[in-house]
Design a protein that fits this description.
The chain is about 25% helix and about 30% strand. With about 200 residues, the chain is α/β, with parallel strands linked by helices. The protein has one domain (about 1-195): Spore Coat Polysaccharide Biosynthesis Protein SpsA, Chain A.
Length: about 200
């Protein structure tokens, strides 16, 4: 049912272990696999890593995620109970203090983004979270991440990916019943943006 496609630099084994444990700890039985792509050369090309790990996936739903996340215990229940049609699904992503981490956000140019209310529909400007997104397999087959944009470099690989999703005719769907936790104490929300301590 789900291929978890995790990218990691390989230098946070405790965080990666916590993510894997959260995937395995669920009250539901379902088919899943865990695939991991490691940036062993520290090249910072997140798009290339995401494409690599997604290509190896065998299930029709791809959960593409960074290594510093923890799935909520009810994560799968939130997916199973969601009845709206979707191609690209975004969960809530919460910081350790309970504030939001770049989950349901819109862009206004390649270097401008802000979080918006979960009830706001995708009007063609919503960018899926770079840290965690669910894709149908056929979406990935049609739109992939740029393999040339380095980490934290404009136009930013996650924003570029979101823009090209819309250009291909896809829209993002917010699932407020699914939550993942950003396992990094340095981040917090202020207004409609996220800051780092």
């Amino acid at each position: 049912m789900i291929s978890y496609c995790i990218i990691t630099k390989g230098d946070r084994p405790d965080k990666l272990a916590a993510l894997i444990e959260s995937i395995k700890t669920t009250p539901y039985t379902y088919d899943f696999e865990i695939n991991i792509a490691v940036d062993a050369m520290d090249e910072g090309r997140l798009g290339a890593l995401r494409n690599q790990v997604c290509r190896s996936a065998k299930y029709p739903i791809l959960a593409v995620c960074d290594d510093d996340l923890i799935l909520d215990y009810d994560f799968i229940q939130g997916l199973i109970g969601f009845t709206q049609p979707w191609d690209v699904m975004c969960p809530k992503v919460l910081n350790p203090d309970g504030s939001r981490y770049w989950d349901w956000r819109e862009w206004d140019g390649y270097d401008k983004q802000m979080m918006v209310d979960y009830a706001e529909p995708d009007d063609g400007t919503i960018i899926p979270p770079g840290c965690f997104v669910l894709l149908k397999r056929d979406v990935f087959d049609n739109v992939q991440w740029s393999e040339t944009i380095p980490f934290y470099t404009p136009p930013f690989e996650d924003i570029d990916f979101g823009i090209r999703l819309h250009e291909a005719g896809y829209k993002c769907t917010m699932n407020p019943f699914m939550t993942v936790h950003h396992n990094d104490e340095r981040y917090y929300q202020t207004g409609n943006v996220v800051m780092k301590k």
